[in-house]
Amino acid sequence: MPEGVYRRALKAKVEVIEGGVNDLLWDLAIHRYVLQRVIDALWELNKLPKRGQVHQLFYLMLRGYGFRAHIARNIYRTALALVKSAKKNGGRKPTIKKMSARVDYQDARVDLDNGVIKVIFRNKWYSLKLIHRREYIERFKYLRWKEIHVKYCNGVLYMSIIFEVKYAPYASRNVLALDINLKQIVAYEGASVRRYRTRFIDALSKKARAEELQKKYPKRWRYNNRILKRIKSLHEKARNIVIGWCRKFAKELIIKAKKHNYAITLEYLTSLHENTIKNGSAITWKLTMFAYGKLRDAVISKSIECNVPVVFINPRSTSSTCPRCSTKLVYNHRLGICLKCNFVSDRDKVGAMNIWFKVLKAYAGMPGSSPSAPPMKGEIRQRRRTRDERMKKVIKSIQI
Ligand SMILES: [Zn+2]
After folding, report:
1. 194 plus 335 within the same structural domain
2. How far is the CA of 329 from the centre of ligand 1 (A)?
3. How does 288-324 read in b/e, with b if 16+ C-beta sit within 10 Å?
4. Cβ burial, residue 74 (10 Å; 0-12/13-18/19+)
């Protein structure tokens, strides 16, 4: 991941402590209404106008509704972007359902010490109190904020404050390779293997239970409040398990990486390990992709915070070849066996080792950053065996 300026968001529920929640919602409702009006007007045009022309067309109208200059500008820009992308994709006219607004620094005051944000959309200032843990808010204290989004959704007001952070990863001494799997994550740094049990299976069982309920009441579940509530809560629990575990794991991992000056490697996943797909149902597949996405996001955001380098690699064929001699492995259930050099190991460990080697190879070609491979030891190096011993071992492992 290249160094540079990245964005991090502070997300929290908010409550209105000054200005009145009804007035604020009214402002947001008018915001939604005029945004839709601008979209409607743009949609009718055969040729989309340029930014300057859009300004001339809508600015005074928006100001007429009492919106501040920068908010008015954000409204027509958002409308133009939405219409543009909908037309480009051949989609339908965009309809704005959610009440939300973007505020730039001219129209907001951020006071993280007290957790109070002041915003103005039209002619009235509102004070909003962030509802979140103190430690979470403190983490953003010394960063520069860029923009604020206020959103009203399902009866709750939310705010996200976007900060800009400089990411300058350190030069790493070694690489920590991760093989990600629904059951466990295997980490390998050239010498030893560490396994972390995930909580994804717990989440999966909640999802499976929800699906069972849907099957049991194929028609009723959608209309029966009690069943619907139960299903929703199961999905929510599954989601919370995944997100909570990913954050905890990312934190632990990044602290460890930073302590030892390691870089972290993540598979750039387009398809997970073949066996997950083959044996898994649709929900397994969905949860796996969701879990991987959350894990990646958690690791990336924590890495940016701690300046830990992250390397993405293509996981192709990482579990099919021998990490020692690159021969194709023979698999007996989850156990990989190399008939040429006698290497025997389970699939996830093979994956993590191969990822580690792949990264080292990629690194070796780059100037200034070439963590040289530490001598093989422990799990990789094995005593050279005679041919007979080797065959015996292979046969033994096949019988497991
Ligand atoms: Zn081999």
Report:
1. yes
2. 7
3. bebbbebbbebbbbbbbbeebbbbebebeebbebbbb
4. buried
Taking residue 360's Cβ as centre, other Cβ atoms within 10 Å add up to 19
Distance from C-alpha of 247 to C-alpha of 362, rounded to nearest angstrom: 28
Stretch (H or E) spanning 153: strand 144-153
User: Please, which contacts does 45-52 make with residues 24 or more away whose CB atoms are closer than 8 Å?
Assistant: 48/80, 48/83, 48/84, 48/87, 49/80, 51/77, 51/80
Across the chain, which distance is largest between two alpha carbons, in Å? 89
- Spacing, Cα 268 to ligand 1 middle (Å): 25
Q: Domain span at residue 36?
A: 4-167
Domain co-membership, 254 together with 324: yes
pLDDT recorded at residue 271: 52
Q: DSSP for 295-311, please give it.
A: HHHHHHHHHHHHT--EE
Burial of 230 (0-12, 13-18, 19+ CB in 10 A): middle
**Which residue type is seen at 115?**
G
First to last CA, the chain: 42
CA of 324 to the centre of ligand 1 (A): 5
- Amino acid (one-letter) located at 299: V
| Same-domain pairing of 130 and 190 | no
Q: β-strands 184-188, 174-180: how paired?
A: antiparallel
Share of the chain above pLDDT 70, in %: 88
Structure tokens at 396: 């033994």
Same domain membership, residue 311 and residue 289: yes
Q: What is the pLDDT of residues 328-378, one digit of tens each?
A: 989 888 888 999 998 888 888 888 998 898 888 876 644 434 343 333 333
Find the 354 Cα to ligand 1 centroid distance in Å: 12
Look up tokens 């999905």; give the residue. Answer: 235
In this structure, the chain runs to a length of: 400
Taking only the tens place, the pLDDT of each residue in 228-276 is 899 999 999 999 999 999 999 999 999 999 999 999 988 776 555 544 4
Spacing, Cα 328 to ligand 1 middle (Å):
8
